[in-house]
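Input/output pair, single chain:
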Amino acid sequence: MTKKILITGSNGLLGQKLVYRFLNEPDFSIIATSKGANRLKVEKGYMFEPLDITDAAAVSAIITKYAPDIVINTAAMTDVDGCESKPDECHKLNVEAVQNLINALKKLKNNPQLIHLSTDFIFDGKSGPYRETDIPYPPKSIYAESKFVSEKEVKASGLRWTIIRTVLVYGVVDNMSRSNIVLVAKNNLAKGRQMNVVDDQYRTPTLAEDLAEGCALATIKDATGIYHISGKDFMSILELFYKVADFWKLDKSLIKPVDTATLAQPAQRPLKTGFILDKARQELGYNPHSFTEGLQIVDNQLNGE
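Output:
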């Protein structure tokens, strides 16, 4: 029996990868939703509905119309510094919108599952990389707080739920309106721009295809609970930039190491996060690419392959 899967934020990096991933699964029919017009190049094989998930009535109407078996919520305000300057907007999209989805799904009679995307930023960054059993400490930013609160909403929803946390996602999508760390590094270095790059923040950067695969595995295996889905290579942001420079044979002398304190960013970042992937490997069969393999995939896509 075909299951209906509704994806929010389908124009975004993860949202697009999820649509394409589930097009390969004949047992799922896809409803892609996003604010504004559809930005995917492939327009066949799924339904698209424009949806602003901060509009409770619109969410209720779409959920009632399609009665999905699974909702994967990728929509979020992820601009960490932007959340500091627009806290109300952040709360509306990252917390209230999740409540809208929960309220709409609770009215269905088919026992739907909510798969919600979260972040490594809910941890304080003092003892990463983290397992699913590690307790989040008081979040360090308005963005982190909003994701922390949204996790609590999902856990208390009474729905079948899955929380997938991830780290520093990168990749290439159709009609991209926003960039990500790998493309920022590549494009600036290619233009000969000097860049100040932090040497005291550590992550496990995540290829968007790998994150989509982790979400798909959790969906197909009907997994519930919390899963950490990220890349497998633990590195500093500085090392990430060096690896990008090496891969595309760009000038590493343009990269100037600095510590986080000197940047005076509006939002405080956790210094050392990243994830331990044992649970996802064992329970889902998750096996991410190496960072270098991820860069090759990005390069192939940029070249239209």
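The chain has one domain: 3-178+205-232+274-292. Residues 3-178+205-232+274-292 form a domain with the Rossmann fold fold (CATH 3.40.50.720).
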